[in-house]
What we know:
The protein is mainly beta and 210 residues long. The protein has one helix at 17-24; strands spanning 43-49, 56-62, 67-73, 81-85, 91-97, 105-111, 115-121, 129-134, 141-144, 151-155, 158-162, 181-185, 189-193, 198-201. The strands form four sheets. A four-stranded antiparallel sheet has the order 1-2-3-4, with no helix packed on it. Strand 12 (181-185) and strand 13 (189-193) form a beta hairpin.
Amino acid sequence: MRALxxxxxxxxxxxxxxxxxxxxxxxxAQPVGWQTSGPSLASVNAISAxxxxxxxxxxxxxxxxxxxxxxxxxxxxxTWTPLFxxxxxxxxxxxxxxxxxxxxxxxxxxxxxxxxxxxxxADSGANWSELTSVSTVCVPSFxxxxxxxxxxxxxxxxxxxxxDAGLTWSEPAxxxxxxxxxxxxxxxxxxxxxxxxxxxxxxxxxxWSP
Length: 210
């Protein structure tokens, strides 16, 4: 990932979904308790927060300018600081703050040529490194496993699993036949859901049942 160019933080105002809701429904024109703020790039694709803190990470993109970047807020979303930008034409699609270690953040970046690249920072966004890539066009989905360093990542019908916070990856067999996203559940249960099916795993994604 490359450093942000000067001026990227002044590009376009962030347009929150709440703004659209206000335009559609007059009843929502004066929301109570809600404020609109965000990264300077026009479209925010992903957001993830450090538990029990005011630290929030967001991925923003400006598709007309072919720019995408990761931002961090240290005050609960009131102000944002740019961290790094993806290569031109690449777009940040998903983020996961590791709930077991708030300094560790994973990012899925859709790259030109049909690659989904996985990046990680282990120092709260100061430095980022590419962990692996998947030759699938997808909207990625991350989930933390029950082990201290287990991370899972779905991409279309594929699933990648890392036992060591992204240093090595394997691709266990799955019954997925449609684009699938991941969601953690209590008791170490992991859920995977598509448009018509939901699967459940109790062993960090090694085996799935409908």
